[in-house]
C-alpha cells in the first residue's frame, strides 16, 4: 500500500467511524480532512495520478456529505440552551439550580426534575455538537475548494459538475462551483 493509499484509507476509516456512531465528535471529520490534505498527488506517477485524484475528490465530497448530513436542519447558534435547570418548588421551598434530585422529597416532582435535567443535558450535547460541526465545516470547506480549483484546472466545467454530481447537496454543489469558477 502506498502512502497516498494509506492516507485515503485512514480518511475513509475516520469517516466510517463518525458515520457509524450517532453522537461521534466532529473532530473525526477534521482528522479525516487532515489525512486527505496530506495526499501528495505530485508524488503519483503519470499512470496513477488521475485515478488517485478522482479518489481524493470522492473522499472530499463524502466528507462534506457527512458534515451536511450531521447538521441539524434549522439549527440556530444564537439559541443557546440555558445554563441551569430550575428545580421545582416544593411546599413553598425554593431550591437553587444544580440541586441533586434526591433533595426533592415529592417523588413525582423529583422524577419530573430528573427528566428535565436529562433533557437539558442532551440539549447541551446537541448544541455543542452542532457548534463543533459548524467549526468543522469552516475548517474543511477551504481545503475542498482548494483541491477542486486544482482538480478543475484543465478539465471542462461540465465534467467537474458531473463528477461532483449528486454526492453533495444541491446547495453545497452550487457553493463549490461558485468557489472554483474564475472571477469575472
What does this 3D model show about the protein?
It contains 6 helices and no strands. It has about 180 residues and is mostly helical. It has one domain. Helix 1 runs parallel beside helix 3, helix 2 packs parallel to helix 4 and helix 3 packs antiparallel against helix 4. The longest helix has about 45 residues.
List keywords for this structure.
mainly alpha, 0% strand
Topology:
Elements: H1 3-20, H2 27-37, H3 46-70, H4 107-152, H5 157-164, H6 170-180
Helix pairs in contact: 1-2, 1-3, 2-3, 2-4, 3-4
Summarize the structure.
The protein has about 180 residues and is mainly alpha-helical. It has helices at about 5-20, 25-35, 45-70, 105-150, 155-165, 170-180. The chain is elongated, with a radius of gyration of 23 Å.
- Low-pLDDT sequence parts: none
Secondary structure category: mainly alpha
**Which overall shape is indicated by the principal axes computed on the Cα atoms?**
elongated
Termini separation: 43 Å
> How many β-strands, per DSSP?
0
Classify the helix fraction into a percent range: 55-70%
Query: Count of DSSP helices?
Result: 6
Overall domain count: 1
Could you state the order of secondary-structure elements as H and E?
A: HHHHHH
Radius of gyration (Å) = 23 Å
Mean pLDDT score: 92
Main beta-sheet annotation: none
How large a portion of the residues is in β-strands, by DSSP E? under 5%
